[in-house]
Amino acid sequence: MTQLWKTEEVLNFADSVTFASGSIVSKTLFDKPAGSLTLFAIAEGQGITEHKSPYDATVQVIEGEGVFQVATNIYKVKAGEGLIMPANVPHAVLPGKGFKMLLIMIRSKDE
Question: Which helix (H) or strand (E) covers residue 63, if one does?
């Protein structure tokens, strides 16, 4: 279990992860059996290939704008907005401008 983000600690998500040219930077804040919180800084032109998750995946864009594909649908999500990608449905982060996001995974035995 990992917990880098301490209880009762105010954290600026956008300042907590930095871009690296030509790559994707991730920083896990919290990872427990119940779920995880991971920050991403996705550099311009980078993406995450199509994959599935056994759990719903929620993204909260914290800087810039990300483009996401869920099944055959395309969504542009701006800073301050979020998107829930359903379990077991193919999804991807499409290459575009650089942006930062918080990925929230909540695990459940029901799903």
Answer: strand 57-63
